[in-house]
Amino acid sequence: MNDTMIGIMRVAGLMVVAALTVGCGGAPDALEVARSGLDEDSDLWADVPEASVDRERVHEGTGCLYVFATDRVKVPVMDVSGISAESDSLAVTLWARTEILQNQAILEVLIDSEGRDPRLARTTLTDVRRTTPWSPATATFALLEGELPNRIRVALIIPDPGKLWIDDVAVWDGASTPDME
Predict the structure, then answer these.
(1) Which is nearest to 168 in space by CA: 89, 63, 74?
(2) What is the mean pLDDT of residues 101-107?
(3) Burial zone of 83 (CB within 10 Å; 0-12 exposed, 13-18 middle, 19+ buried)
(4) Residue 67 in contact with residue 51, Cβ under 8 Å?
(5) So what's the pLDDT on residue 45?
(6) Residue 181: which of 59, 62, 21, 22 has the closest Cα?
(7) What H or E segment, with its residue span, contains residue 9?
(8) What is the CA angle 54-151-30, rounded to 5?
(9) Tell me: the pLDDT tens digits for 9-42?
């Protein structure tokens, strides 16, 4: 067998494995639960003087959330109720742009489930710091056994001085979110 035939057989073998993975219930696609373009002012961040809508430096649409932090600040960005998540995880996707943000931003999710106390989950957004152009960010949160969220509140914590723009925040039922590029 020559090298060309071996190469073709390897590619064909990989295609069969990929088809079997998808056909046999490989990672299911996530279902979008909620989305906000953050194009308009919101009562969610009305009490946060550092937060406002920026109509000039948007990623997409007519506006985005702009936070000019001079100290640690927490900004609520989404509050979704009446949902029914059915997978074993939730994901939050967003687009972010930063200027002179010293440390990583923190994504906070408060998960309300019927019959349980609300649970707070946090993760750092490792690429949301320093000075960066518009970039996608995704955070996945595992759900506890029997946890069926019916309300989700999403907030961003900016731990130090800096500027942060956020656009197109979405909550997903499942960890396998679509490619944001």
Answers:
(1) 63
(2) 93
(3) middle
(4) yes
(5) 85
(6) 59
(7) helix 3-23
(8) 80
(9) 443 333 333 333 333 444 457 788 888 888 888 8
Average pLDDT, the chain: 83
- Rounded CA-CA distance 62/51 in Å is 16
Strand partners of residue 164: 67, 98
In angstroms, the first-to-last Cα distance of the chain is 40
Concatenate the DSSP letters of all residues of 126-144 into one string: TTSSEEEEEEEEEEEEEPP
Note the pTM of the prediction, 2 decimals: 0.80
Q: What percent of the chain has pLDDT over 90?
A: 54
Contacts with 164 (C-beta within 8 Å, 6 or more apart), sequence order = 66, 67, 69, 96, 97, 98, 101, 105, 128, 156, 158
* Separation CA 23–CA 43 (nearest Å): 45
